[in-house]
Write a structure and sequence with these properties.
globular, four-stranded antiparallel sheet, about 25% strand, Nucleotidyltransferase, domain 5, single chain, alpha+beta
């Protein structure tokens, strides 16, 4: 009989896979810093797309004059935050689980070739409210511009490069290390919010998992005829594993803003997938685990995982506030720091 933990892990994976908002492709664009190399296993501390082609982030070391001051202050003793004259304390009823959708199923990294490994092109943080028994997904744009930590193959820290967030994953030499790097970077991005667990699923895990539950039915809220002539707005469609992979994965990276449009498709698919999973129950969990295989990595407490089978899901899909800019080499998403702080305080803190 399958262990309870395995059942719970797969339950959350079925929910997460639909959120492949940014699973990129396999063409890696050249970055301005061609000497960047990758990180080895020894260096990571444990936690304290034309069609299927995506762009890589841009590496630029930032001058000190470019660094923006924090919009809040933090008490180093108790972790409370002071924002606009008010103090906020951590809401201890909230747990968090990070889901990463990886664009490449080959996780090995041996050298400096940017085509190795993968990138976290889907980034979803689940805020689990244990008091109200509800889960709120927060979509994080893979094009968000942040100070990515760069390491060499021996695990030596080299510098910070101003890159798309998706690139942080590429500096780990294993799924575990890459997930930890990304987890820590996102924690910093979100006002140092504690992240309790992380799960990743590669692109090759989508088709077998969706096929295992018999596909997903949904009503299209947007026109998606660029994917299929029958995908008109308002149409009812059935997506099997292959079509689901295309629906959540494909975008033309040469079309600016295509990642934003793809994220809209992922939201539609997610809501439909929630309904299908809740109707199916746990009868097909063991088969789905076999289907996921090595495409799955997880590091989550079993007690937290139980909430994904017991709690309701918020109908509102939260997204990072900011502006998508298309006038550079690649799409770049710039976060509105004040609005982000307000969102984080609402999700994870309580006013003192």
């Amino acid at each position: 009989m399958m262990k309870k933990r395995e059942v719970l892990v797969l339950a959350i994976i079925f929910v997460c896979v639909i959120l492949f908002t940014g699973i990129g492709g396999f063409l890696i664009s050249e970055r301005r810093n061609n000497n960047v190399v990758r990180k080895s296993d020894s260096a990571v501390a444990e936690p304290a797309d034309k069609n299927e082609e995506d762009d890589a982030g841009t590496t630029d070391e930032k001058d000190e004059s470019d660094v923006k001051p924090e919009v809040y202050t933090r008490d180093s003793f108790d972790g409370s935050i002071i924002y606009q004259g008010k103090r906020y304390e951590k809401n201890t009823a909230i747990d968090t689980v990070l889901f990463l959708g990886i664009d490449n199923s080959n996780q090995s990294r041996e050298g400096v070739d940017l085509a190795e490994g993968g990138r976290s092109d889907t980034i979803i943080l689940f805020a689990i409210d244990n008091e109200n028994k509800i889960i709120a997904p927060l979509e994080i744009n893979r094009d968000s511009m942040v100070d990515v930590d760069i390491y060499d193959n021996d695990g030596n820290y080299l510098a910070q490069g101003f890159e798309q967030l998706t690139m942080q994953y590429s500096y780990g030499k294993s799924a575990r290390e890459a997930c930890n790097l990304t987890k820590n970077k996102i924690s910093d991005l979100l006002c140092r919010t504690r992240i309790d667990g992380v799960i990743s699923l590669t692109v090759d895990g989508i088709k077998p998992i969706v096929d295992q539950i018999g596909g997903v039915d949904l009503k299209l809220e947007t026109d998606e005829t660029q994917l299929d002539p029958s995908y008109c707005k308002g149409a009812f469609v059935h997506l099997d594993g292959a079509s689901a992979r295309d629906f959540v994965h494909i975008r033309d990276a040469e079309v600016r803003g295509s990642n934003i449009e793809r994220m809209s498709r992922q939201t539609q698919f997610m809501l439909a997938m929630f309904q299908k999973i809740r109707m199916q129950g746990g009868s097909v969990i063991e088969e789905m685990e076999d289907a996921a295989g090595d495409n799955l990595y997880e590091d989550v407490n079993a007690d937290i995982l139980t909430h994904f089978t017991d709690y309701e899901y918020s109908e509102e899909i939260l997204m990072l506030p900011g502006e998508n800019k298309t006038d550079g080499i690649h799409d770049e998403f710039y976060i509105d720091e004040n609005k982000l702080t307000e969102m984080i305080l609402k999700l994870f803190y309580m006013e003192s």
